[in-house]
Design goal:
Strand content: under 5%
Order of helices and strands: HEHHEHHHEHHHHH
Helix content: over 70%
Radius of gyration: 22 Å
Distance between the termini: 70 Å
Shape: globular
Largest sheet: 3 strands, mixed
Number of strands: 3
């Protein structure tokens, strides 16, 4: 009990990605710019989906949930990293570290589940179009969104609470730029090998089950596309689905590297770069991927700018 109480009263020290040298100042400015672009892109996409009636469909409702997650992901890590860099302070309280770990796990699991449910939406739209209004009615969409968020809350609550039961009485320096579960476990005084094994098994299940659903859905979609006689219909289907497949590849590629590849095969520096990629780059790219390759989103954007231009002329 004393070890546990002691671990809860001390701060952790996070690893800084940047020094105050010239090249690192440029990199910091680049990260800040990408962070701002990502937030702006996702907020614009949320605004378009909310205001344009043509985007009030199940696919765009699920996409709005993805944008919400992509707003939250970088907000958990990047502002803290920026403040630490500007103030030359790398510490984080036990409570702050707990909050970071919980919300990152919540959003990571939720996004993985949501991406698999979005693939099911594409399967129904392409392979069972006549049943689409029934199979993807509003209640089903709300259930899908609720399932993704609740699965994230459940996994994050369980894994965070278990992790906090370990005492942290050795080094308080986290070999990461934010509090991530594997990096924290390395600081525990107790043997965490059994929990790490259970964590790896659960991580594989959490990643593989949604991936299996995605693979099954797009396997059926591919078969349907190959049997389409209309070139225009085939092109539209390919454009819509390829956007989602690209997002899936970006998210799961980083997740598989972090949680399925044994830690002996990648260094802490590589972990930091991959974590920066999935917590900053991927959320920034997602709205660009969906807007640049999607006719409806581009049409809604042109409509908004057209109204703004017309209003300014008047």
């Amino acid at each position: 009990m004393r070890e546990s109480n002691q671990s809860m009263t001390l701060d952790f020290t996070l690893m800084s990605l940047f020094s105050h040298s010239g090249p690192h100042l440029v990199l910091f400015s680049l990260v800040a710019t990408i962070f701002t672009m990502g937030l702006l892109g996702n907020v614009i996409l949320l605004f378009l989906i909310h205001t344009d009636s043509r985007l009030h469909t199940p696919m765009y409702f699920l996409l709005s949930q993805l944008s919400l997650l992509d707003v939250g992901f970088p907000l958990v890590t990047i502002p803290k990293m920026a403040v630490d860099f500007l103030q030359e302070e790398d510490s984080i309280s036990f409570e702050g570290c707990t909050a970071q770990m919980f919300f990152l796990m919540l959003m990571g699991v939720s996004e993985g589940v949501l991406l698999s449910l979005m693939s099911y939406d594409r399967y129904v739209a392409v392979c069972r179009p006549l049943h689409y209004p029934i199979l993807m009615r509003r209640q089903v969409c709300l259930l899908m969104a609720g399932t993704s968020w609740l699965s994230g809350v459940l996994v994050a609550s369980i894994q965070t609470s278990i992790t906090l039961h370990f005492p942290y009485c050795a080094s308080r320096t986290v070999d990461h730029f934010f509090c991530e579960l594997p990096a924290l476990l390395k600081l525990s005084c107790r043997d965490t090998s059994a929990y790490e094994l259970a964590l790896s098994v659960s991580g594989v299940l959490i990643l593989l089950l949604p991936l299996c659903l995605i693979a099954a859905s797009y396997g059926h979609v591919l078969g349907a596309v190959l049997h389409m006689h209309s070139t225009e219909a085939r092109h539209k289907t390919f454009t819509t689905c390829s956007s989602h497949i690209t997002v899936v590849a970006l998210f799961y590629g980083a997740a598989v590297f972090m949680y399925m590849v044994p830690s002996t095969y990648h260094s802490p520096q590589q972990d930091n770069m991959v974590s920066l990629f999935y917590s900053l780059i991927t959320p920034t790219l997602n709205p660009l991927i969906y807007s640049l390759r999607n006719r409806e989103v581009k049409g809604a954007l042109v409509k908004i700018f057209g109204k703004a231009g017309f209003g300014s002329k008047r």
